[in-house]
Amino acid sequence: MLRPGRFRHRLLETSFLKQHASEIHHALHPFLAMWKQRELKDFEIASVYILIFSFFRRPADFLGGPHSDFKFDPQEQGIRGRKVIEILRAHLPPHLNDRKVLNRLDTENYFVEEFCSLSWRSIPLSVPRSLRAWERGLYPLELLTSVPTPEHVLEMQCQGQRCVSMLTELEEIENFVEEGRDVLGFIVHDLIHADHFFADPARAQAQVLFCQKLRHVYTLPQIQNLLHTDPVFRSEFYYIMSDMNSVPLHLLKTLKAIILGHFKRHREADFKAPLGAVEEREFLDLFQVSLKPWALDKASWEAALRLNTPSSRLPEDALLLDVALNKFP
Question: What highest taxon heads this organism's lineage (predicted)?
């Protein structure tokens, strides 16, 4: 039995996309039309999108065995598996439209139920978990047909939301690669991150709070200057803004390391070597300004200043900051 997939960023090779992008785009077209007419919900079109790419990628064995991680109501409303497969077969190249593997989805069951009840090659269980939670209204996700800016993602996270990008233009399908991800890898990545973000409600709430504080840090003139002048800092800061899921303590440690990294690069010295007195003061000044949105008490403030240093007091500092960073107004 095929186990649930392990995610690789690049799922579709360039040669594959050059050969099949037009066929994939053609197969997507009727479903996109239905979605635009509100005949398919967002989580349904996302499921169909993954189906089509997965099928073209491995038309003989993209599906694995069944699993029972999700419970469904037989009365749920939505497009049925048989309808999806009927439409898909009608828009496949002749040499693919009779593939037997599609029969496993050709049932009168709710399509999303069928999708989530099976293992998919290279698709982790986080993906059907997110689709199922999205369908139930548990994960507040917004479907986009574009790639959002880091600022857009941060703003959504400040509001307790995440986005899922589904790129549909032929040129995008054929050529898009960002951070090593093709269009299939991109939507899979977004659904994995949605599950990581929302699966634990308490952790999700804590990360929302961190994002709200980070939004203030982003607006600082000193930070804006670094975003415009240091490409490495910009890449790392955008990552923590929009693409990193973790507990607030780890996020704060990462933020401090990103700021320190700028001063290390600026000094053009060994990263293991300490900063000079002037750079150390400049670094601490910027980190302390960046800490202010959290309004930490004195003990927690001092613990934050000790983060990532030999003077850090573990586990006391970690416990202190874990409580302080998870306080809600």
Answer: Bacteria
